[in-house]
Design brief:
Elements (H helix, E strand, L loop, with lengths): L4 H19 L16 H17 L2 E4 L5 E5 L8 E7 L12 H18 L5 E7 L12 H7 L4 H4 L10 H7 L15 E9 L4 H5 L3 E7 L1 E10 L3 E2 L11 H19 L4 E3 L3 E4 L5 E2 L2 E10 L2 H21 L3 E10 L2 E2 L2 H13 L4 E6 L4 H5 L5 E6 L15 H19 L8
Parallel strand pairs: 3-4, 3-5, 5-16, 6-15
Antiparallel strand pairs: 1-2, 2-4, 6-14, 6-16, 7-12, 7-13, 8-11, 9-12, 10-12
Helix pairs in contact: 1-3, 1-12, 3-12, 8-9
Bound molecules: (2S)-amino(hydroxy)ethanoic acid and manganese (II) ion (2 copies).
The site of one manganese (II) ion has 4 residues, from loops.
């Protein structure tokens, strides 16, 4: 399959148009994008993607979690489908490409194939997954997890966002979770292919256009609550305090130091913290902070967490404070499907496109699908490795190379006599 220079120009223009179009949903004045699950901007974005799917001639439909699918039916009447796409939600004040690029790539690739090659032999579906980031509710991968059965509404019943809005309430206000749409659990997916920005700097530094992901790191997230005693900042001698903030500061310092010293490539992040009563002249009685810990080896991750939380207990009691640690995410490291990875590599070698096989330090929906069906994750470079920020940027020519690769993979899997993904 050859894509001419003229067709490449057309793809280039389409990409520029769609990236700005999708980023307009939830864009703020500093050009950051916030589309949290079931919010108004999230709903407008899903509706816009649905409209786009219909304009391309796909059969657009939702499931009851709010995942949106656009189906290009195959000629051979298979029941199963090849799925490509990514997540529509973003972090707070995120960028234009994280998640969005995978959806845009799927839309453009399927439109190109339909216009140039007609209907495929096998069904192809583009999916706009409802949620991946865990940025509104303390739960990640709600979209892919609902499809694979890894997540269920029962497990989400107790969740609420920072404003106290309950998960089920937000879901129903957006029109989902009431049986109006098909149950999200599926067992008819041949494979899942996700295009995503690297969110790191390796590809750009090494001058590679594509990252073929062989492994995705394991990831755990916790909420740590330190309970002390709030008291007067002026009349409470230092030795008499049960200062939750002081204890939290020591815990965070210990975490960072141990993360640096324990294992290369282990990363630990405290991204959120809040104090109560959060007043300048009151000793904090309560400190609540998040922890995100990642490593490519499940044993290293397990041992580090066992050890650090033992040390946490000793520090907390020295401050006369009580500790509660809530683990709300635990994703194992995964190895991506070899068959699919080899299809990408052979196309890239044939087209002489510089690529790198690599591990992903970011979590992705492919990590969830990979435990359920053959899955493949492909990266395009992130400028300076910046992501989860309004300064996220990827050159359109790089976005286009990724989409040309997706077109060729889907063509091989769905139009020729299928790929032999294991
Ligand atoms: O946090 C992550 O790894 C991804 O961006 N959700
Ligand atoms: Mn992200
Ligand atoms: Mn993402």
């Amino acid at each position: 399959m050859i894509i001419s220079a003229e067709q490449s120009m057309a793809l280039y223009k389409q990409i520029e148009e769609l990236v700005d179009w999708l980023a307009s949903f939830g864009r703020n004045e500093s050009n950051g994008v916030t589309r949290s699950l079931y919010s108004k901007d999230w709903q407008l974005a899903q509706r816009a993607v649905e409209k786009r799917m219909k304009e391309i001639g796909l059969h657009a439909y939702y499931d009851d979690a709010g995942n949106l699918f656009g189906r290009l039916p195959g000629r051979q009447g298979h029941d199963s489908a090849i799925l490509t796409g990514s997540h529509i939600d973003t972090v707070v004040n995120g960028g234009k490409y994280d998640g969005a690029y995978g959806i845009i790539a799927g839309l453009i690739a399927v439109q190109y194939l339909k216009e140039h090659y007609g209907l495929p032999k096998k069904n192809i579906e583009v999916v706009s997954l409802c949620e991946e980031e865990g940025s509104r509710f303390p739960m990640t991968y709600w979209g892919s997890g609902s499809i694979t059965g890894m997540k269920s509404l029962e497990k989400a019943q107790h969740l609420a966002d920072a404003e106290g809005i309950r998960f089920v309430e937000a879901m129903q206000q957006a029109g989902f979770g009431q049986g109006k749409y098909p149950d999200p659990k599926r067992n008819d997916i041949d494979c899942f292919i996700e295009l995503h920005i690297e969110q790191g700097e390796v590809l750009e530094r090494e001058g590679k256009s594509i990252g073929v992901v062989s492994h995705i790191v394991g990831q755990r997230r916790y909420t740590v609550t330190v309970a002390g005693e709030s008291n007067h900042a002026g009349t409470t001698p230092m030795g008499w305090r049960k200062d939750a903030m002081h204890a939290a500061a020591e815990l965070i310092q210990l975490l960072m130091q141990q993360a640096k010293e324990t294992a290369p490539d282990l990363v630990a992040t405290v991204g959120q913290i809040h104090l109560e009563p959060n007043a300048a002249n009151v000793i904090p009685g309560k400190a609540v902070f998040s922890i995100d810990i990642r490593h490519s080896d499940e044993c290293v991750l397990f041992q580090f967490c066992e050890e650090i939380f033992k040390q946490f207990a000793a520090v907390a009691s020295r401050h006369g404070t009580r500790l509660h640690i809530d683990k709300w995410m635990d994703e194992k490291p995964v190895k991506m499907c070899k068959g699919l990875t080899e299809i990408s590599e052979s196309i890239l070698k044939r087209e002489q496109i510089p690529f790198k096989k690599m591990t992903s330090g970011a979590g992705h929906d492919s990590q969830v699908f990979d435990q359920f069906c053959p899955a493949s994750l492909l990266f395009v470079p992130s400028h300076k490795g910046i992501s989860h920020s309004p300064y996220e940027f990827t050159r359109t020519e790089d976005l286009e190379k990724g989409i040309q690769l997706l077109i060729k993979i889907l063509y091989q899997l769905a139009y020729e006599d299928g790929g032999n993904e294991q």
